[in-house]
Design brief:
The chain is mostly helical and 428 residues long. It has 16 helices and 7 strands. Helix 5 runs antiparallel to helix 6 and helix 7 packs antiparallel against helix 10. The protein starts with a strand and ends with a strand. It binds protoporphyrin IX containing FE. Protoporphyrin IX containing FE binds next to helix 12 and helix 16. It is found in: Membrane.
């Protein structure tokens, strides 16, 4: 299958923003990278994340509208995040990975299930463990198996997977566990649904399913609900919590940056009031650091692979149907032409000469165009409120000192994940 990587900025913007390339097809495409394609697609065949055409249109429109109704990018969600940030208090030294996953995941849980879980809740912890295990398996094994050309074998003989020993069985069982959890939540919602007062994403979807039950072309069905919830849960947890964890590593490595942010936050908000999104305008340095964290981490360097659903004519070339298209976000986020010092952590990339926040069109960690991240506003809100709230209350450090922090991500295939450290959070 032909593969085309697309970057830098002007080509990516032209293809995904101006020409509005929408297609995606993880079924075909992920096979290039991942061991467990067949298993995953078996579980995630429906839903927003890997669909195309009418299904994608209906689910994307509905998901964006519902997330907005429940406050994505607005006040309601702000309060949930503020509430959740109060639970980000821990003993030191500690590895914040799991705590941050709990915090971030709870925001999605509020949105999807109208429920926040205690950080000791066994079910919740089990789910987060699964997500973390899946990540480990994918990142470590996909590289090994890629070298051994096994993915091709999996594509040709998917049924063999059932019989071969290996991690696929664990992955299979664990994804099924998340699915069962989601199905249970849907059932509970069905039993308590009051159509005049929807509580969350599930309620809204159930109401829509009922309204469209006689429409033969509707995409509002049970399978799409389960899979879209899985998309939101999986896509919304690790990306955001890993970015916050990376930000903490940055703050420990550069104590002067941390101090400057704390000073700015102290002057504008103080220590007693919860931060809100309005504050962002008055915190240009803090905002610039958070943007630079996302740029420098470059969490999904190839974004999510797309593929051509039909022949495409682009800049005098024909891209044949079924070509795998990798949007190289990495080439944009680390582009020599786009940034003064692409390979250094430099908040000045987002500040003008007067210290005001300055946008840069090459800031594309959420990809671009109509198929870009559906959770962007939520993620940006979480990053801002959680980080500001943490800096109001703590100073971060580690026992081995700033130089011991390595900002180069752990070796990975699909995602750049920050290294883990035992950190110290000293109350201010
Ligand atoms: C720092 C945090 C995040 C980053 C960097 C990020 C990045 C991305 C990227 C690069 C894509 C692929 C876009 C493409 O196909 O071209 C994507 C898609 C997606 N993201 Fe995120 N994301 C983040 C947080 C979230 C959150 C919080 C949610 C949940 C509300 C979410 C849900 C999704 C979904 C459902 C898709 C598929 C959208 C579609 O196919 O239409 N993401 N994200």
């Amino acid at each position: 299958r032909p593969l085309m990587a697309i970057g830098p900025l002007h080509l990516l913007a032209c293809a995904f923003v101006l020409n509005q390339w929408l297609f995606k097809g993880l079924i075909l495409v992920f096979s290039v990278f991942f061991v467990y394609v067949w298993l995953l697609t078996h579980f995630l065949l429906s839903g927003l994340g890997i669909s195309n055409g009418e299904r994608w249109h209906q689910l994307r429109r509905f998901t964006l509208a519902t997330l907005r109704d429940f406050g994505m990018g607005r006040k309601g969600m702000e309060e949930w995040i503020q509430e959740e940030s109060k639970h980000l208090r821990a003993h030191t030294p500690f590895d914040p990975t799991f705590l941050l996953s709990c915090t971030v995941s709870n925001v999605i849980c509020c949105l999807a299930f109208n429920q926040r879980f205690h950080y000791e809740d066994k079910h919740f912890l089990r789910l987060l463990n699964i997500i973390s295990n899946l990540e480990e398996i994918f990142l470590k094994e996909s590289c090994i198996v890629l070298c051994a050309s096994l993915p091709q074998m999996y594509n040709i003989f998917p049924w063999l997977m059932e019989h071969l020993p290996g991690h696929q069985h664990t992955v299979f069982a664990q994804i099924e566990e998340i699915r069962e959890f989601i199905k249970k939540k849907i059932q509970e919602h069905k039993e308590t649904l009051d159509p005049s007062s929807p509580r969350d994403y599930i309620d809204c979807f159930l109401i829509r399913m009922d309204q469209e039950k006689n429409n033969p072309t509707t995409e509002f069905n049970y399978d799409n609900l389960v899979c879209t919830l899985m998309n939101l849960f999986l896509a919304g947890t690790e990306t955001t919590s890993s970015t916050i964890r990376y930000a903490l590593n940055v703050l420990i490595k550069y104590p002067n940056i941390q101090e400057k942010m704390q000073h700015e936050i102290d002057v504008v908000i103080g220590k007693n009031r919860c931060p809100n999104m309005e504050d962002r305008k008055s915190l240009p340095f803090t905002d610039a650091v958070i943007h630079e964290v996302q740029r420098f981490l470059d969490i999904v360097p190839f974004s999510v692979p797309h593929h051509a659903l039909h022949d495409i004519s682009f800049r005098g070339y024909t891209i044949p149907k079924d070509t795998v298209i990798l949007p190289l976000l990495h080439s944009v986020l680390k582009g020599e032409k786009e940034w003064a010092t692409p390979w250094s952590f430099n908040p000045q990339h987002f500040l003008d000469q007067n210290g005001n926040f300055k946008k840069n069109p090459a800031f594309l960690p959420f990809s671009a165009g109509k198929r870009s991240c559906v959770g962007e506003s939520l993620a940006r809100m979480e990053l801002f409120i959680f980080l500001v709230s943490l800096l109001q209350h703590f100073t971060f450090s580690c026992t081995e000192g700033p130089d011991s922090i390595n900002l180069i991500p752990e070796y990975s295939s699909f995602a750049n994940l920050p290294r883990r450290y035992q950190i110290i959070a000293t109350p201010r």
